[in-house]
Amino acid sequence: MIAFLQSVVEYFYNNPIESIGAILTVVCVWLNTRQSIWGWPVGIASITCYIWVFYDVYLLGDFLLNIYFLLLSLYGWYHWLYGKGNEKKLPVTRLTQSELVTYVIVGSIAAFIFGEILVRYTSASLPYWDATTTSFSVLAQWLLARKKIENWLFWIFVNILYIGIYFAKSLFATALVYAILLVLAVKGYQQWKAELYTHY
Questions:
Q1: What is the pLDDT at residue 8?
Q2: What is the pLDDT of residue 200?
Q3: Residue 4 confidence (pLDDT)
Q4: So what's the pLDDT on residue 196?
Q5: What is the pLDDT of residue 127?
Q6: Do 123 and 199 sit in the same domain of this protein?
Q7: Cα separation of 190 and 148, whole Å?
Q8: Are residues 83 and 98 in the same domain?
Q9: Residues 119-127: contacts with CB within 8 Å, 24+ apart?
Q10: pTM of the full predicted structure?
Q11: Of the residues 31, 57, 90, which one is the last residue of a structural domain?
Q12: How many angstroms separate the CA atoms of 190 and 54, rounded?
C-alpha cells in the first residue's frame, strides 16, 4: 500500500498538469451531477490542462477534440446562465424519441466514418473503438450543454468503452479515473431524472 501511494505521489510530481487535469475532471463531473454552474469553469480548467498535455505529446486528434470541448464548455456555461428564461435555473429536459434515435444514428455513422479514416490513413490502435468514443463524446458534451438528461446515457456508454480501451492498453490508472466517471454518470442520470419528474 505504501509503495502504491509512493508511486502515485511520484507520478503526480512528474506529471503535474495531467494529474491536476484528471482531478479537475472528476470534480467537474461531480458538479455537473449536482447541476452546479461551477462545473463549467472547473471543466474549462481541466480541458485547458489536457490541451497542454496533448499538444506536448503531439496527440493532434485529442488536442483538437479538447479545443471543441473548450468552445462548447463556454457555450454551455453561457446557456446554463442565460438560457433559463423565467426559470430560476435552466431546467432539465429530455430528447424526443425521434431525436434520440437521430443522435444515435448520427453518432454511429460518424464513428464508422472516423474509424475508416483511422484504419486507412493512420496506425491508430483500436481505431473503431477510438472513433466511437470520440464521436459519442462530442454528442454527449453537446447534450450536456443543452441540459438534456440523455447526455448521461451517452457518457455511461462512452465511459464503459473507455474503461475497456484503457485496460486493453494497460493504462490502469486512467481506467480507474473513468470507472469513477462512470459511477458519477450513473449518479448524474438518477439525480437529473428525479428533478425531471419533479419539474413536470
A1: 65
A2: 52
A3: 62
A4: 80
A5: 86
A6: yes
A7: 13
A8: no
A9: 125/169, 126/165, 126/168, 126/169
A10: 0.88
A11: 90
A12: 33
Is residue 59 domain-shared with residue 79, that is, in the same domain?
A: yes
Same structural domain for residues 99 and 194?
A: yes
Backbone angles phi, psi at 93, to 5 degrees: -130, 175
Q: CB of 62 within 8 A of CB of 134? A: no
- If asked whether residues 51 and 9 sit together in one domain, one would say yes
Domain that holds residue 152: 94-200
Q: Are 153 and 189 in contact (CB under 8 A)?
A: yes
Mean pLDDT (10-residue bins), the chain, 200 residues: 70 81 93 95 95 79 87 95 80 95 97 92 84 94 96 97 86 83 96 77
